[in-house]
Amino acid sequence: MSQYATNYDYGASDLAEPLDYTAPAADPGRSKMTPLLLIPSLGLSGIAWMAGGLSPLTDMSFLLLTIVCMVLLVRELLMFTQRWGLGGVVLYAGSLVWFCFDYLTFWFMNPEKAAQTGFTNAIVAKAAFFTILFICSMMIGLNIRKGRFFVRLMEKTPDIRTSGIGFILVLILFVIGICPFFLFTSEPWYTAIYHQFTSGRGGHGVAWTVGRTGNVNYNWGAYVAQILQIGKVGSIYAILWVILVSKNILPRIVGVAIWLLWLLLGTGTGTRGEVIASMLPVVFAFHLKYSAIAAAYSKKISIRAYVIAGVLLLITLIVVQFQITFRNEGFLNKSLEDVKEKIEGNSMFSEGLMGYRLIPDRFNYFHNAFYVEGAIRPIPDTIFWFFVSPMPRALWHSKPIDPAWKWYNEVVTGDPNGTEGTTIATGASGYWFIRYGPFGLIEGGILIGWLMSYGEMLFLSCNGRLNLLLFVLGWETWLFRGFRGFGFNDLDALLVGFIALSLLTLVANVFGGVPAQMESA
Q1: Is 93 helix (H, G, I), strand (E, B) or coil?
Q2: DSSP 8-state secondary structure symbol assigned to residue 13
Q3: What's the rounded Cα separation, in Å, for the pair 393 and 216?
Q4: What span, in angstroms and rounded, lies between the C-alpha atoms of 457 and 145?
Q5: Distance between CA atoms of 97 and 344, rounded to whole angstroms?
C-alpha cells in the first residue's frame, strides 16, 4: 500500500483495508533544476526585447514556455499519488490558463496586433520576458519546503468529531449565510434570491437596503457581504462533507442542494471568480478522493479521478462562458445555444501590457525611492496588507489605499477617480513589476511559489480533518485566482468563513463524541 495515501476512509465498497495514513516526510520529489527549463524561453524573449521587438523570437519563447508548462503539468498529474502536488498543478495549470492561452490566441504569429492595440512589439517582448521570469521564480518557490511553524499553527485549528456534527455545521453556516436575503432586502426573500440568480451586472438586481458604493466604502452596511461569504464558504464545506464524509442519502441531498444554491447565486453575480471559487474545490476534492483510493492499491493514477475532474472543469467552462456572454444584460430567458464559443476573461498577459508600457519609461516603479527598495519591500508590504486588508474601513476611515491599484484603474479606464467603478487586473507578474521592478517581481514570484508549496505541506497534515482540508482547497483556489493579480480580497472571504467554521466547531464539539474517520460510500 502506498505510503503517501491520505487519511480518508472511503468505506468497504472502495477499499478492502483502511488507507495507510503516513504522509511523505519532506521532499515532494521535484528536481530543483526544473526552473532551468525556462532559460531558453527567457533568453529568446530577452533578445527579442533588446532588439526592439522581434516577434518571431517572442513567439518562440512563449511556445517553449507553453510546452514546458504542459510537460510539467502532465508530470505533476502522473506523479500525483506520490507527491500530492496541488501547488504544482495550480502553478502549471494557472500559467497555461492565464498567460499562455492568452498569448497564443491573441499575439502568436500576429505581429501587427501590437500596433492595432496601441502597443509595440518591443512592449510585448518586454512583457513576455518578465512573465516568463515570474513563472520561473514561482517554480523556485515551489521547491522551498520551509514553514513548518505555519503548518503546525494551522494544525491547532479545531475539527469535527463526528459526521453528525459536520452536518449540523453545514446547516448552521447555511442559515447564517442566507439570512441577509431575509433581513437586508426591500423585497421578499424568494424574490431577492430569484433576482440574484438572473440579474448579472445589467439585469434587475437584488433590492438591498445596505451595501457598498464604489470600491472604497465607509459604512457598516457594506459588511453584510462578509455574512454572505460565510454562506459561500459554508456551501463549499457542505459539498466537501457530501463527497468525503456523509453516507446517508437525505443529508447528501441537502448538502448538494446548498452547494448548488450558492453556485447559482455566485453565477448570478456575473463574476467568473465566484464560479471558480465554488467549482475548483469540488474538482480538487473528487480528484483527491479517487487518487487516494488508487494510491491505497499502489496504483499511480486513477482514471475516475481524471474523468470526473475533467467533466467538472468542462461544466465550469460552460458556466463561465454563459456568464461572459450575458452578464451585462442579465440571464433571464437566455439559451446555451447563444453562448460565445471563444474563451474570454483569462487574458492576464494582455492585461498587464499598459503597465509594462508606462513603467519605468514614463512613471517610476511605485516603490523605488532609494536603491534596492524594490528588493526590500515586497515581503514586508505583503505582510502589511495581509493584516490591513480585512480591517473594516467603517472602523478605520483612513485605512491606506494601494496607490498602484488606484493608478492602474485610472490609466486604463480614463477615470480620474480610480477607487470608483470597475477594477482592472494587472496580471500576477504585472502586479509585482509595477510596484517593485524586476527584483521585486522575482521575489514576488518566489513568494507565491512558496505559498503554493505551503498549501501542499498543509494538505499532508490534514489527516482526514475536513475543516483543514476546506482551508487547503480554498487556499490553492485563491492562488489560482491570484494569477489575475495578487491580493487578499478573495483570501479574506476564505478566512472569514473558516474562522466562523472553527468557532462553531469548538462549540459543537462540546456535544460530540469520539472523533470519527472521514468516510464515504
Answers
A1: helix
A2: T
A3: 8
A4: 8
A5: 11
Calculate the average pLDDT of the chain: 87
Q: What is the largest distance, in Å, between two alpha-carbon atoms of the chain?
A: 70
| Among candidate residues 212, 23, 207, 54, the one with its CA nearest the CA of residue 125 | 54
Q: Grid coordinates representing 495?
A: 478566512
Q: Which amino acid is at 515?
A: P
Q: Is 150 helix (H, G, I), strand (E, B) or coil?
A: helix
Q: Which distant-in-sequence residues (6+ apart) come within 8 Å of 206 by Cβ? A: 181, 185, 187, 192, 195, 196, 199
Instruction: Please state which of the ranges 20-29, 69-78, 285-294, 295-304 shows the lowest mean pLDDT.
Output: 20-29
Q: How far apart are CA 197 and CA 331, in angstroms?
A: 8
The neighbour count for residue 14, using CB atoms within 10 Å, is 17
Do residues 26 and 45 make contact, with C-beta atoms less than 8 angstroms apart? no
Spatial contact of 37 and 67, defined as CB atoms under 8 Å apart = no
Task: Please give the single-letter amino acid code of residue 454.
Answer: Y
Q: Residue 208: beta bridge partners?
A: 185
**How many other C-beta atoms are found inside a 10 Å radius of the C-beta of residue 491?**
20
Pick from 149-153, 220-224, 414-418: least confident: 414-418
Q: What is the arithmetic mean of pLDDT over 67-80?
A: 94
Q: Which of 101-105, 191-195, 337-341, 512-516 bottoms out in mean pLDDT, i.e. has the lowest?
A: 512-516
State how far the Cα of 242 lies from the Cα of 226, in Å rounded to an integer. Answer: 24
User: Cell 468497504 belongs to which residue?
Assistant: 12
Residue 190: all three cell numbers together:
424568494
> Where does residue 212 fall: left (phi above 0), alpha (psi -120 to 50 degrees), or beta otherwise?
beta
Q: Each residue of 405-429: b (16+ CB within 10 Å) or e?
A: bebbbebbeeeeebeeeebbbbbbb
For residue 503, the one-letter residue type is L
pLDDT tens digit sequence for 142-194: 999 999 999 999 999 999 888 889 999 999 999 999 999 999 999 999 999 99
Whether residue 515 has a cis bond before it, omega within 30° of 0? no
